[in-house]
Every structure is written in C-alpha cells, then in structure tokens.
Write a sequence for this structure.
C-alpha cells in the first residue's frame, strides 16, 4: 500500500485589517467643487462638470445593477456592489492623499522662495519655471484628478443606496488576535478560572 503524500497546509490566519475607507475620509482629503473650480481657473486647467461626473457614475452603477438583477440574488448584488463602490472610494481616497502630499511639497517649495539667500530656489533661466512653480502646477493637476475621483465615488455611493436600499459602509473584517490558536484561548480561559 502506498500513501499519497499530502503537503501540509499551513493554518489560515486572520490578519487584522485597517479600518475601511469612508466617503467622509475622501471628502476630507480631496477638494470640493468650489475649490476645484478655483484651482482650475487659477492654473488655467479645465473646469470639471462635477455634477455630471457624479450623475454619470450613479447611472453607471444603477444600470449595471439592472443588467445583473436577473442573475444575482439580493445578497449577491449587495456584495458585488459593496466591492465596486469600495474600489471607487478607495481610489478617490488614494488620490486625495496624493493631492495632500503634493500641496504640502508645493507649499514648502514656495516658502523656501521667500528666503533670498537660497540660490537653488530662485527662478530658472528665462523660459523655464522654478522648481516651486512646477510643484504648484503639479499639485493643481493632482487636485483636479482627486476631485474627479471624489465625484465618481460620491455617485457610486448614491447608486449603492438606490439599488440596495441602505447606506454604503466600508467592509470591515472582524479582527482576531494574530497567531492565537484554539488551544491558547482554551488555556487562557482555564487559567482565568483559577482567579
């Protein structure tokens, strides 16, 4: 008799995940419509149709759900939309964080310009922008991108509520203590019984 060798499967561990990203976190990190318009006008960038972006993404999610409703149960639809909306919110949050860093770098570079003793921060040769100007322009471009993704996320969240009938909340896995086994838990309970 020969035994087939089985590879030992490592036991699955649940790793605590960080808290889910909320739409409020996106709003705190990204420019709103008024600020995005001011930035676009100040830097000569295209002014976005914020409401149009939000409405388009809302319709996109609602129409997707309509197309899938025959093939998915209510719970499956909720899980599917939870993931889709979560990706929109996560993407917008990442863009908002990137925008915040770009603004910080632009502010720091611009503040260094006020120090007349620093040659490296002076304007470049004729026809070339200073490093501080390039950082400000980059921050403006990133601001518009972050705002556009914020509007897409807001539209997706509204669509989720329309389709599912409840407010969207980020998925959060229950965290367990990493590396804690059943025997360790049992030992802790037994020792606790001693007082």
């Amino acid at each position: 008799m020969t035994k087939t060798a089985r590879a030992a499967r490592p036991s699955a561990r649940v790793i605590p995940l960080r808290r889910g990203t909320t739409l409020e976190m996106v709003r705190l990190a990204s420019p709103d419509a008024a600020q995005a318009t001011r930035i676009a006008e100040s830097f000569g960038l295209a002014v976005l149709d914020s409401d149009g972006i939000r409405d388009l993404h809302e319709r996109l999610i609602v129409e997707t759900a309509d197309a899938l409703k025959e093939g998915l149960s209510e719970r499956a639809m909720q899980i599917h939309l939870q993931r889709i909306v979560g990706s929109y919110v996560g993407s917008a949050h990442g863009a908002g964080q990137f925008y915040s860093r770009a603004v910080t770098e632009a502010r720091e570079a611009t503040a260094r310009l006020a120090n007349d003793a620093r040659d490296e921060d002076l304007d470049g040769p004729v026809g070339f922008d200073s490093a501080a100007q390039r950082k400000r322009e980059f921050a403006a471009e990133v601001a518009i991108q972050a705002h556009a993704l914020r509007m897409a996320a807001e539209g997706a969240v509204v669509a989720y509520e329309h389709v599912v009938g409840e407010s969207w909340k980020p998925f959060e896995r229950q965290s367990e203590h990493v590396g804690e086994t059943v025997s360790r838990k049992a030992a802790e309970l037994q020792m606790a019984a001693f007082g």
Notes: The radius of gyration is 25 Å.
